Amino acid sequence: MKKSQQKLISGIIISEQTDIVPSVYSSGNTFQVEDQRPPVAKYLVKFFLALSMLFIASAINCSAQENAKAERDGQHDFDFNIGTWKTHIRRLLHPLTGSNDWVDLNGTVHVRKVWNGRAQLEEIEADGSTGHFEGLTLFLYHPEAHQWAQYFASSAEGVINQPQIGEFKNGQGELFDQESFNGRTIFVRFVWSDITPDSHHVEQSFSDDGGKTWEPNFVATLTRDKETSTGDEMPLPLAANAANGAHDFDFNFGVWKTHIHRLLKPLTGSDTWTDYNGTSVVTKVWGGRASLLELDASGPAGHIEGIGLRLFNPQSHQWSLNWVNGGSDPFMTVPMVGRFARGQGQFYDQEEFQGRIIMSRNGFSSITPNSSRFEQAFSDDAGQTWETNWVMTFNR
What we know:
Layout: E1 7-8, E2 12-13, H1 39-70, E3 83-92, E4 102-114, E5 119-128, E6 131-142, E7 147-154, E8 164-169, E9 172-181, E10 184-196, E11 199-207, E12 215-224, E13 254-263, E14 273-285, E15 290-299, E16 302-313, E17 318-325, E18 336-341, E19 344-353, E20 356-368, E21 371-379, E22 387-395
């Protein structure tokens, strides 16, 4: 879901009206015709003209109010979700099969603000008869569309799913997507309802008939845990038997002074660079098997703001780097995938850049307890040569 002109750090995009007036033709003469109507008739005409103008003004005002409602700012619609919650979950084991076999789980959900509320990170941990469940959801608000997108990943796979997208109306949120399930294309719906300061309800449903009917398969009730409900990081324990590589990003946790050196026009032969200075904050998710980077930097070329969600896949022993740009188009880019070896991390993807398919590489190196280096490079010859276009240094 990415249309980048210049992608940096797995997708950072650093980024006359003419009034048409009709010609006026004038003959130089003004024609006046004496009004021969009786006085009463003239007053009635003026009265009805004034009444018509009043109705027109009222209609314009109503239309403006309706447009304002339609374009309301919804970036705080998920504010109710911030904090720590006790959750009870009911899950249908075999959706869209006619089965009625449900299982129950109980656990904890922790939600914290990102970008001062324009995004949220939710962590969930629950246990039931089918075992342990651990997942996260990243919520992103799109200010131009006035819509929310939610991206889910489970710790068992470490891969971000495609988002559900939607909005809140009349105190209820509905988000949708289309995806493949057991070889069939279906619709998925998430509904957030019964919202109070201390509780709410979440339900996922599937439809295989174009949205005519919906079968719920995940129902969660959440009650605020007032003793531990804060906006801080969820204190999840480290996995007892973490797979090899699951803590390769531990060096990056903390607050960092960040310097960025950026090539303005990659793959053009240009050698014009610009610089930014700012701060990066990296916090722990899933006890370290994932992490969230928040970058904020400024320079002569403008302001950069973004989120990097790193997820470990315990099956492949690889990391995926998922990037979200700040600004008007906060949707997640194609992930970079790779791993660490001999103290360095290398991550790759294939993407479109200025109408061409290229390869992109992210690298972490020079790692010490108090510093590290990040570098991004592009290749338009299938990886034979690489041009560096982004260098970022971190210092505590």
